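Saturday, quiet lab. Running sequence design on the structure tokens for the scaffold JK sent over.
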């Protein structure tokens, strides 16, 4: 059993689970220099080939240009190696929801499969008005997206025997939820539970990535079936995460990606160990992950890797 699974189950992982994510734009900017850093830390990256910088994996949405997904959402991207955003919403008017049919194409559960999908379909302002006014079309839209996602989860489970199922859907903004916790519990919690119940019925665990300020509903996410949550430190605050999660909700902490581009390597090292000291328990419940964009200096990336490698062996 991996240390991450032991951490989720509070079964005393031998080492603190850690990971580093390097975005396609980061590879494109730093190239061979980034490859050399990765080769210094096989415990984080495995055996990295010397040509890794020129053959990095780029998802379709990270290419410059436009494309339309099976839901009819138009995605636009102005720079290679960065994520696209939805600029064309297929349901601009509330009554359009009544004509919506879920795609026949099976997309799986890409990032933004539930809450963000509602925004992508209606547009941010329109879906916020829907949550404020609570028309019947809101629940209808949620039901259509939820049922499609339940089908996708069933298909995913047939294709993979992995014990841990990874999903991602950003629910928060920088300083708050975009809707009230009460409305999140009313509308989103049942939808996630219906999807995650499928995984649990098959004996799987669910890892939920979700950006933004979410600490107010993290216990609800757990009740809905998220066995481990991947929250952002900057958006939620270390004190809130300690209060809500330590010893209660397993988290894979997303370290401060808003700090990395501007801080010294020494400050980044201090930040990582501050988080470890505050959240670590020998029995588990904690992992650490760092995402490095193209604006993170190489010496900071190297320090992140070095510090996380050391943090693996942290003990109180």
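Result came back. Writing it out in full:
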């Amino acid at each position: 059993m991996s240390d991450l699974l032991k951490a989720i189950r509070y079964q005393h992982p031998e080492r603190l689970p850690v990971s580093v994510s390097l975005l396609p734009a980061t590879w494109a900017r730093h190239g061979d220099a980034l490859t050399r850093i990765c080769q210094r830390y096989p415990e984080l990256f495995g055996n990295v080939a010397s040509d890794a910088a020129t053959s990095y994996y780029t998802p379709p949405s990270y290419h410059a240009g436009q494309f339309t997904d099976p839901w009819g959402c138009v995605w636009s991207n102005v720079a290679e190696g960065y994520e696209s955003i939805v600029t064309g919403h297929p349901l601009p008017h509330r009554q359009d929801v009544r004509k919506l049919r879920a795609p026949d194409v099976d997309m799986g559960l890409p990032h933004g499969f539930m809450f963000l999908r509602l925004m992508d379909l209606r547009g941010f302002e329109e879906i916020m008005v829907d949550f404020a006014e609570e028309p019947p079309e809101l629940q209808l839209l949620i039901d259509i997206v939820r049922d499609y996602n339940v089908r996708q989860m069933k298909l995913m489970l047939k294709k993979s025997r992995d014990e841990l199922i990874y999903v991602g859907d950003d629910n928060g903004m920088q300083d708050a939820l975009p809707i009230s916790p009460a409305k999140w519990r009313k509308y989103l919690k049942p939808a996630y539970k219906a999807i995650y119940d499928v995984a649990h019925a098959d004996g799987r665990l669910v890892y939920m990535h979700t950006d933004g300020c979410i600490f107010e509903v993290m216990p609800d996410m757990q009740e809905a079936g998220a066995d481990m949550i991947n929250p952002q430190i900057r958006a939620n605050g270390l004190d809130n995460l300690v209060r809500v999660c330590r010893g209660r909700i397993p988290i894979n902490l997303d370290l401060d990606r808003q700090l990395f581009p501007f801080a010294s390597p020494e400050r980044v090292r201090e930040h990582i160990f501050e988080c470890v000291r505050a959240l670590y328990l020998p029995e588990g419940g904690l992992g650490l992950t760092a995402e490095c964009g193209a604006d993170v200096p190489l010496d900071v990336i190297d320090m992140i890797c070095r510090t996380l490698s050391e943090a693996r062996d942290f003990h109180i």
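Notes for JK: Residues 129 and 226 are 28 Å apart (CA to CA). The longest strand covers residues 286-292. Ask whether to fix the surface positions before the next round.
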